[in-house]
Amino acid sequence: MRRLELLRIEHRDLDSAIAALVESGSGDQMQIARLKKRKLRLRDEMALLEDQLVPDIIA
User: Fold this and answer.
1) What digits encode the pLDDT tens for the residues 32-54?
2) Distance between CA 59 and CA 51 in Å, rounded?
């Protein structure tokens, strides 16, 4: 699914951006917090899409 792939890429990019801001010490805490919230929203959306791809199996 193309949307899931794009979300994963954006999630990985946000992770790199957050790490770079923390490492450099130049990022303010509000900016870092906003990026982390965005990253969490992406993770939730990815989980939802992944759940839709896997069929429910009744045991």
Assistant:
1) 999 999 999 999 999 999 988 88
2) 17
Q: In the chain, how many domains are there?
A: 1
pTM: 0.82
Q: How far apart are CA 34 and CA 38, in angstroms?
A: 6
CB-based contact 13:42 (threshold 8 Å): no
Distances (CA, A) of 4 to 12, 26, 42, 44: 12, 31, 10, 11
Closest CA to 8 of 39, 35, 32, 54: 39
Q: Which residue range forms the structural domain that includes residue 26?
A: 1-58
